[in-house]
Amino acid sequence: MPANTTMLHIRIDEDIKTRAAAALEGVGLSLSDAVRILLTRVAKEGGLPPGLTVTEETYDNWFRRKVQEALDSTEPTIPHEQAMREIDELIRNRVRDRSPLE
User: Fold this and answer.
1) Rounded CA gap, 32 and 85, in Å?
2) Count of H-run helices and E-run strands, the chain
3) DSSP symbol at 46
4) What does the alpha-carbon distance between residue 12 and residue 33 come to, in Å, rounded to a whole number?
5) Which of 6, 38, 82, 84 could form a disulfide with 78 if both were Cys (CB 3.0 to 4.6 A apart)?
6) What is the pLDDT of residues 64-77, one digit of tens each?
7) Smallest Cα–Cα separation from 20: which of 35, 11, 31, 28?
């Protein structure tokens, strides 16, 4: 009996796609093969496979370093209102770019 399959469409940077396809071709896999392997592992293991995730401690250390870098930065700051306007614009652009074509 044939498998019940579905189509998956994703958006990805062209350069990443090209480099990944070339690397996978070197081991005899297609992009579709790699995505199938990843999603199968996620489904079976209930999350990302080991090696693709970081520990809570690693993330916490990274986050604390980033916060300290921001606190120590001598770059000029921007007012809260400006920061919120800029992030709102980024979000609107992301939502627009992900919306289906009309």
Assistant:
1) 39
2) 4, 0
3) T
4) 16
5) 82
6) 999 999 999 999 98
7) 31
